[in-house]
Fold this protein.
Amino acid sequence: MIGRSTYCAIVTCCVLSLACCAAAGPAAAAPPKVSAPTDAEARLSDRFMAATALLYAQEFNGTMRMYCTATAFERDKKVYRFATAAHCVAEDDTLHKEVELEAKTWYLTFDEDEAKRFYRAKIVAAGYQHRGDDFAVVEVTLDRWVPIIPLAKSDPHTGEDVINIASPGGLGKQLFRGHVSKAKLSRPVVARSINWKNATLLQMNAGGGSSGSAIVSTGQRGIVAFLVGSIGGGDSLNTVAIPIGKFKSFWERSRTGKYKWFDPKKAEEGDSADPEDEDDEEDADDGFDRLGDPTPSPK
Protein backbone atom coordinates (compact mmCIF):
# COMPACT_ATOMS: atom_id res chain seq x y z
CA MET A 1 0.00 0.00 0.00
CA ILE A 2 1.04 3.57 -0.48
CA GLY A 3 2.25 5.31 2.64
CA ARG A 4 4.71 2.64 3.72
CA SER A 5 8.21 3.90 4.08
CA THR A 6 10.39 0.85 3.50
CA TYR A 7 10.41 -1.42 0.46
CA CYS A 8 12.40 -4.32 -0.94
CA ALA A 9 15.39 -3.61 -3.15
CA ILE A 10 18.19 -5.44 -4.90
CA VAL A 11 20.73 -2.90 -3.69
CA THR A 12 22.91 -3.83 -0.70
CA CYS A 13 24.81 -1.08 1.08
CA CYS A 14 27.77 -1.16 3.49
CA VAL A 15 28.58 1.69 5.87
CA LEU A 16 32.28 2.48 6.10
CA SER A 17 33.81 4.39 8.99
CA LEU A 18 36.63 6.64 7.81
CA ALA A 19 39.06 8.20 10.27
CA CYS A 20 41.90 10.69 9.86
CA CYS A 21 45.10 10.32 11.88
CA ALA A 22 47.29 13.35 12.44
CA ALA A 23 50.97 12.85 11.82
CA ALA A 24 53.49 13.85 14.48
CA GLY A 25 54.87 17.35 14.11
CA PRO A 26 53.29 20.77 13.76
CA ALA A 27 49.66 21.23 14.69
CA ALA A 28 47.23 20.36 11.94
CA ALA A 29 45.82 23.21 9.91
CA ALA A 30 42.32 24.41 10.68
CA PRO A 31 39.60 22.82 8.54
CA PRO A 32 38.58 24.85 5.51
CA LYS A 33 35.73 27.26 6.03
CA VAL A 34 32.44 26.56 4.33
CA SER A 35 31.88 29.34 1.83
CA ALA A 36 28.71 31.36 2.15
CA PRO A 37 26.30 31.18 -0.77
CA THR A 38 26.57 33.94 -3.34
CA ASP A 39 23.77 36.46 -3.74
CA ALA A 40 22.57 34.58 -6.82
CA GLU A 41 22.51 31.27 -4.93
CA ALA A 42 20.68 32.88 -2.01
CA ARG A 43 18.03 34.30 -4.36
CA LEU A 44 17.64 30.88 -6.01
CA SER A 45 17.19 29.22 -2.60
CA ASP A 46 14.56 31.80 -1.60
CA ARG A 47 12.60 31.24 -4.83
CA PHE A 48 12.90 27.47 -4.44
CA MET A 49 11.63 27.65 -0.85
CA ALA A 50 8.59 29.70 -1.92
CA ALA A 51 7.85 27.31 -4.83
CA THR A 52 7.83 24.22 -2.59
CA ALA A 53 4.66 22.83 -1.03
CA LEU A 54 3.84 19.84 1.16
CA LEU A 55 1.39 17.20 -0.06
CA TYR A 56 -1.27 16.20 2.47
CA ALA A 57 -4.25 13.87 2.36
CA GLN A 58 -7.35 13.93 4.49
CA GLU A 59 -7.69 10.61 6.27
CA PHE A 60 -10.96 8.78 6.91
CA ASN A 61 -11.12 10.14 10.46
CA GLY A 62 -10.85 13.70 9.14
CA THR A 63 -7.25 14.36 10.18
CA MET A 64 -4.69 15.79 7.77
CA ARG A 65 -1.59 13.68 7.14
CA MET A 66 1.53 14.72 5.26
CA TYR A 67 2.81 12.37 2.55
CA CYS A 68 5.44 14.00 0.35
CA THR A 69 6.97 17.20 -1.02
CA ALA A 70 6.03 18.92 -4.30
CA THR A 71 7.51 21.77 -6.37
CA ALA A 72 5.81 24.27 -8.69
CA PHE A 73 7.19 23.99 -12.23
CA GLU A 74 4.39 25.36 -14.43
CA ARG A 75 1.79 28.13 -14.19
CA ASP A 76 -1.28 29.10 -16.26
CA LYS A 77 -2.76 32.24 -14.69
CA LYS A 78 -3.99 31.05 -11.28
CA VAL A 79 -3.59 27.35 -12.04
CA TYR A 80 -0.27 25.90 -10.86
CA ARG A 81 1.22 22.50 -11.52
CA PHE A 82 3.47 20.84 -8.98
CA ALA A 83 5.64 17.76 -9.51
CA THR A 84 6.00 15.01 -6.93
CA ALA A 85 6.53 11.22 -6.87
CA ALA A 86 3.98 8.72 -8.17
CA HIS A 87 4.51 6.35 -5.25
CA CYS A 88 3.13 9.10 -2.96
CA VAL A 89 -0.30 9.05 -4.61
CA ALA A 90 -0.71 5.85 -6.64
CA GLU A 91 0.24 2.25 -7.23
CA ASP A 92 0.47 0.10 -10.35
CA ASP A 93 -2.39 -2.16 -11.39
CA THR A 94 -0.18 -4.75 -13.09
CA LEU A 95 -3.15 -6.86 -14.18
CA HIS A 96 -4.55 -4.08 -16.37
CA LYS A 97 -1.22 -2.31 -16.94
CA GLU A 98 -2.42 1.02 -15.61
CA VAL A 99 -1.94 3.46 -12.75
CA GLU A 100 -4.39 3.30 -9.87
CA LEU A 101 -4.65 6.46 -7.76
CA GLU A 102 -5.13 6.26 -4.03
CA ALA A 103 -8.74 7.18 -3.25
CA LYS A 104 -7.91 10.16 -1.06
CA THR A 105 -8.65 13.86 -1.00
CA TRP A 106 -5.36 15.66 -1.64
CA TYR A 107 -4.20 19.10 -0.50
CA LEU A 108 -1.14 21.30 -0.81
CA THR A 109 0.11 23.67 1.85
CA PHE A 110 3.08 26.03 1.89
CA ASP A 111 3.87 25.24 5.51
CA GLU A 112 3.37 28.76 6.83
CA ASP A 113 4.53 29.50 10.35
CA GLU A 114 1.12 30.93 11.15
CA ALA A 115 -2.14 29.05 10.59
CA LYS A 116 -1.63 26.77 7.60
CA ARG A 117 -3.86 27.05 4.54
CA PHE A 118 -4.70 23.86 2.69
CA TYR A 119 -5.49 24.14 -1.02
CA ARG A 120 -7.56 21.36 -2.62
CA ALA A 121 -5.38 19.59 -5.19
CA LYS A 122 -6.05 17.32 -8.14
CA ILE A 123 -3.77 14.60 -9.51
CA VAL A 124 -3.70 15.21 -13.26
CA ALA A 125 -0.90 12.77 -14.15
CA ALA A 126 0.79 9.81 -12.48
CA GLY A 127 3.47 7.50 -13.82
CA TYR A 128 3.50 3.73 -14.16
CA GLN A 129 6.19 2.82 -11.66
CA HIS A 130 7.16 -0.48 -13.27
CA ARG A 131 8.47 1.63 -16.15
CA GLY A 132 10.51 3.79 -13.77
CA ASP A 133 8.10 6.73 -14.21
CA ASP A 134 7.93 7.59 -10.51
CA PHE A 135 6.36 11.01 -11.18
CA ALA A 136 3.04 12.67 -10.52
CA VAL A 137 1.72 16.11 -11.39
CA VAL A 138 -0.60 17.89 -8.97
CA GLU A 139 -2.78 20.77 -10.14
CA VAL A 140 -4.09 23.48 -7.81
CA THR A 141 -5.76 26.89 -8.18
CA LEU A 142 -4.16 29.51 -5.94
CA ASP A 143 -5.25 32.94 -4.79
CA ARG A 144 -1.61 33.96 -4.37
CA TRP A 145 1.44 34.33 -6.58
CA VAL A 146 4.03 31.55 -6.29
CA PRO A 147 7.34 31.41 -8.18
CA ILE A 148 7.95 28.45 -10.45
CA ILE A 149 11.23 26.60 -10.80
CA PRO A 150 12.01 25.85 -14.46
CA LEU A 151 12.99 22.42 -15.72
CA ALA A 152 16.72 22.35 -16.49
CA LYS A 153 17.86 21.93 -20.08
CA SER A 154 20.01 18.89 -19.33
CA ASP A 155 20.21 15.96 -16.92
CA PRO A 156 22.51 16.22 -13.90
CA HIS A 157 26.20 15.45 -14.31
CA THR A 158 28.64 13.94 -11.83
CA GLY A 159 30.07 16.51 -9.45
CA GLU A 160 27.30 19.06 -10.05
CA ASP A 161 26.33 21.11 -6.98
CA VAL A 162 22.64 20.82 -6.15
CA ILE A 163 20.15 21.98 -3.54
CA ASN A 164 16.90 20.47 -2.28
CA ILE A 165 13.91 21.77 -0.34
CA ALA A 166 11.92 19.09 1.48
CA SER A 167 10.21 18.26 4.75
CA PRO A 168 11.81 15.05 6.09
CA GLY A 169 10.14 13.80 9.22
CA GLY A 170 7.32 16.28 8.70
CA LEU A 171 9.43 18.94 10.44
CA GLY A 172 8.76 21.67 7.90
CA LYS A 173 10.49 22.86 4.73
CA GLN A 174 14.27 22.76 5.00
CA LEU A 175 17.16 23.58 2.67
CA PHE A 176 19.71 20.86 1.89
CA ARG A 177 22.91 21.11 -0.13
CA GLY A 178 24.86 18.33 -1.80
CA HIS A 179 26.31 17.11 -5.07
CA VAL A 180 25.71 14.49 -7.74
CA SER A 181 27.92 11.51 -6.91
CA LYS A 182 26.87 9.41 -9.92
CA ALA A 183 24.88 10.89 -12.79
CA LYS A 184 23.62 7.58 -14.18
CA LEU A 185 23.51 4.38 -12.15
CA SER A 186 23.88 1.42 -14.48
CA ARG A 187 22.51 -1.04 -11.91
CA PRO A 188 18.70 -1.13 -11.60
CA VAL A 189 17.28 -0.01 -8.27
CA VAL A 190 14.15 -2.08 -7.69
CA ALA A 191 11.72 -1.60 -4.80
CA ARG A 192 8.79 -4.01 -5.18
CA SER A 193 6.63 -2.33 -7.85
CA ILE A 194 9.18 0.32 -8.77
CA ASN A 195 12.10 -0.01 -11.14
CA TRP A 196 14.13 3.19 -11.01
CA LYS A 197 16.05 2.77 -14.25
CA ASN A 198 19.11 4.92 -14.94
CA ALA A 199 18.72 6.67 -11.59
CA THR A 200 20.98 9.45 -10.32
CA LEU A 201 22.81 9.15 -6.99
CA LEU A 202 23.28 12.17 -4.73
CA GLN A 203 25.32 12.85 -1.63
CA MET A 204 22.57 14.67 0.27
CA ASN A 205 20.47 14.15 3.38
CA ALA A 206 16.90 12.95 2.96
CA GLY A 207 14.21 11.36 5.10
CA GLY A 208 10.58 10.29 5.22
CA GLY A 209 8.54 13.00 3.51
CA SER A 210 11.32 14.00 1.07
CA SER A 211 9.93 11.91 -1.81
CA GLY A 212 8.88 13.94 -4.82
CA SER A 213 10.96 16.97 -3.91
CA ALA A 214 12.97 18.69 -6.64
CA ILE A 215 16.73 18.60 -7.03
CA VAL A 216 17.88 21.98 -8.36
CA SER A 217 21.28 22.64 -9.95
CA THR A 218 22.93 25.84 -8.73
CA GLY A 219 24.71 26.04 -12.08
CA GLN A 220 21.77 25.37 -14.39
CA ARG A 221 19.39 27.16 -12.00
CA GLY A 222 16.65 24.67 -12.74
CA ILE A 223 15.27 21.26 -11.73
CA VAL A 224 17.64 18.48 -12.81
CA ALA A 225 15.98 15.54 -11.01
CA PHE A 226 13.31 14.47 -8.52
CA LEU A 227 14.15 12.72 -5.26
CA VAL A 228 12.49 9.33 -4.82
CA GLY A 229 14.36 7.35 -2.15
CA SER A 230 17.59 6.49 -0.38
CA ILE A 231 19.94 3.54 -0.03
CA GLY A 232 21.17 2.50 3.38
CA GLY A 233 18.29 3.79 5.47
CA GLY A 234 16.14 6.89 5.66
CA ASP A 235 18.95 9.10 7.00
CA SER A 236 21.52 7.91 4.48
CA LEU A 237 23.47 10.33 2.30
CA ASN A 238 23.05 7.91 -0.63
CA THR A 239 19.96 9.54 -2.08
CA VAL A 240 18.25 8.33 -5.27
CA ALA A 241 16.72 10.70 -7.84
CA ILE A 242 15.30 10.37 -11.35
CA PRO A 243 16.78 12.69 -14.00
CA ILE A 244 14.73 15.52 -15.46
CA GLY A 245 14.90 14.13 -19.01
CA LYS A 246 12.68 11.21 -18.01
CA PHE A 247 10.20 13.55 -16.35
CA LYS A 248 10.05 15.73 -19.47
CA SER A 249 9.18 12.69 -21.58
CA PHE A 250 6.53 11.57 -19.09
CA TRP A 251 4.93 15.02 -18.82
CA GLU A 252 4.91 15.67 -22.58
CA ARG A 253 3.02 12.42 -23.20
CA SER A 254 0.73 12.98 -20.22
CA ARG A 255 -0.35 16.51 -21.10
CA THR A 256 -1.02 15.54 -24.73
CA GLY A 257 -3.08 12.49 -23.74
CA LYS A 258 -0.54 10.00 -25.08
CA TYR A 259 0.50 8.40 -21.78
CA LYS A 260 -1.42 5.14 -22.06
CA TRP A 261 -0.84 3.93 -18.50
CA PHE A 262 -2.88 6.71 -16.86
CA ASP A 263 -6.45 7.77 -17.66
CA PRO A 264 -7.33 11.09 -15.92
CA LYS A 265 -11.07 10.58 -16.49
CA LYS A 266 -11.01 7.13 -14.94
CA ALA A 267 -8.95 8.45 -12.06
CA GLU A 268 -11.65 11.03 -11.27
CA GLU A 269 -14.23 8.24 -11.06
CA GLY A 270 -12.25 6.18 -8.54
CA ASP A 271 -14.12 4.57 -5.69
CA SER A 272 -13.37 5.38 -2.07
CA ALA A 273 -10.73 3.22 -0.48
CA ASP A 274 -11.45 0.94 2.43
CA PRO A 275 -9.48 2.18 5.46
CA GLU A 276 -9.05 -1.41 6.58
CA ASP A 277 -6.94 -1.98 3.46
CA GLU A 278 -4.33 0.61 4.41
CA ASP A 279 -0.88 -0.34 5.64
CA ASP A 280 -1.47 -4.07 5.30
CA GLU A 281 1.99 -4.95 3.98
CA GLU A 282 4.98 -5.85 6.08
CA ASP A 283 8.01 -3.60 5.81
CA ALA A 284 11.21 -5.20 4.57
CA ASP A 285 14.31 -4.02 6.42
CA ASP A 286 16.80 -4.18 3.57
CA GLY A 287 18.30 -0.72 3.85
CA PHE A 288 16.26 0.85 1.05
CA ASP A 289 13.61 3.50 1.62
CA ARG A 290 11.04 5.23 -0.52
CA LEU A 291 10.86 8.52 1.30
CA GLY A 292 7.15 9.23 1.42
CA ASP A 293 4.92 9.61 4.47
CA PRO A 294 7.12 10.82 7.35
CA THR A 295 4.79 9.28 9.95
CA PRO A 296 3.95 5.73 8.80
CA SER A 297 1.53 3.67 10.81
CA PRO A 298 3.17 1.22 13.23
CA LYS A 299 3.53 -2.38 12.18
The mean pLDDT is 79.
